[in-house]
Amino acid sequence: MSMHTQAETAAPPIRIETFSVGPDTDTSADSPLAAWFEGVSFGFHEGRLEAEDLPRLAEAYAADGRILWGAYDDHPGPHAWNPRIPVATYGTMVNSLNVGGGRFLDAHLITAVTVRPTHRRRGLLRRMITADLQAAADRGHAIAALTASEATIYGRFGFGTATHTTSIEVDVRERFAVTAPPYGRMEVVEADAAVGLTQEVFAAFHARSPGSVGRQYAYARRSAGLWGEERPQPDKALRTAVHYDDDGTPDGFVSYSFAGWEKTPYTMRVKDLVAASEAAYLELWRYLGSLDLIERVTFGMAPVEDPLPWALTDRRCRVLTSDEDVLWLRILDPVAALGGRSYQHDGVLTLSVTDPLGHAAGTFELTAANGAGSVRTLDDGADPDIAMDVSALGSMYLGGVDARILAAAGRLTECSPGGVERAAQLFTAARAPYCITHF
Ligand SMILES: CC(=O)SCCNC(=O)CCNC(=O)[C@H](O)C(C)(C)COP(=O)(O)OP(=O)(O)OC[C@H]1O[C@@H](n2cnc3c(N)ncnc32)[C@H](O)[C@@H]1OP(=O)(O)O
């Protein structure tokens, strides 16, 4: 474990340390890593750490290349909980973001953000995220990303919601039928084999899905049932089935568990459902609809642009229960970010961006031609076509929201006639961005 201490600020007297996890990291019950996990569990109202879980968690975090932050109160009150347990936690890793048109950027991912109630609203989150975003920008990352527990926290730091999913309930009784012609076959698979199979299917999904973020080490183990949601111990209720195409290539999988006989209508809960093609997506639903004794299937991460109702004999079998934001993006470098995505239309647009932390502030001229974008920074005072805050730029970046909607919401200002229309056209995505990774 490499460790270094960051500069101390005058008040509050909280020491912040960062460390990475590697093969030599101490995973004993009284190690700094164990204390860090205790801090995270406390922050998310989960149970105490089981010491036996630590080696597996360490292996996962090492594979992810995570950097962990802990904030320590060296002046605890009497009888305070173990002062080695951080009063605030924070973690980062890097993974691939599909930005459309077969292009990918390495995104700086932020996770495990907690501040103990006794230390909240004293600026600890601000202190960590401000330093971290600066360091990420200095390392050359164009984009930071996170999934948020509350929608009120991260806008002030320049993040904007960029992708959504929907929760659906599907009535799979007699009236359920998928109209598309069937192909390939489904197989219920062994948990050990499911790890590699789900990774293979996800890789194909990631390659074709704008908005997708690469998955961390634990994901495939959870989708296979080898790990549970909270502990790296088998989830014996979870089942995994894989769809193979006519050539025998896995092109979809679904992991699911039964809600129990006391819950009516009898319900199967989908934990993870990933398809490498629209056709495979429908095959997974055909399988779910064929589960005997089951009356309803629930899924919390369906795409916003969902072909399912259009593929059903009775479209009312699928009921939308909620809409959730998933990926929040924070543009750190507009030149690299806007130059990194692809464009459906040619055109020129000048954007003025404000940024409370300064990273993305400025006026930028975007020229899109033949699918690619090039960006140059203009001098202060250049006349923009549109003006917005960096959080609105993060929301618009993948095409998840139309510039006209942001303008209507007062989040984007038109500065030259036709500017909003041009922005709407330039930022249009071929399909709604879809992130099916929580981190
Ligand atoms: C990526 C992820 O991991 S998402 C998970 C986030 N974590 C959680 O939800 C766990 C429970 N909550 C917490 O642990 C804490 O309340 C946190 C991490 C959300 C906030 O930590 P704090 O140290 O209290 O935040 P900090 O004092 O730095 O606040 C910075 C600013 O954000 C505001 N703020 C912080 N949390 C919230 C919130 N939940 N809702 C609205 N505003 C908030 C503060 O008022 C402050 O505003 P100001 O700068 O205008 O004065």
UniProtKB/TrEMBL annotation:
PROSITE patterns linked to this entry: GNAT
Domain N-acetyltransferase positions: 44-179
GO molecular-function term, one example from the UniProt record: aminoglycoside N-acetyltransferase activity
Example GO biological process: aminoglycoside antibiotic catabolic process
Keywords of the record: Acyltransferase, Transferase
Gene3D superfamilies listed in its UniProt record: 3.40.630.30, SCP2 sterol-binding domain
Name recorded for this polypeptide: Predicted acetyltransferase
Native source species: Arthrobacter subterraneus
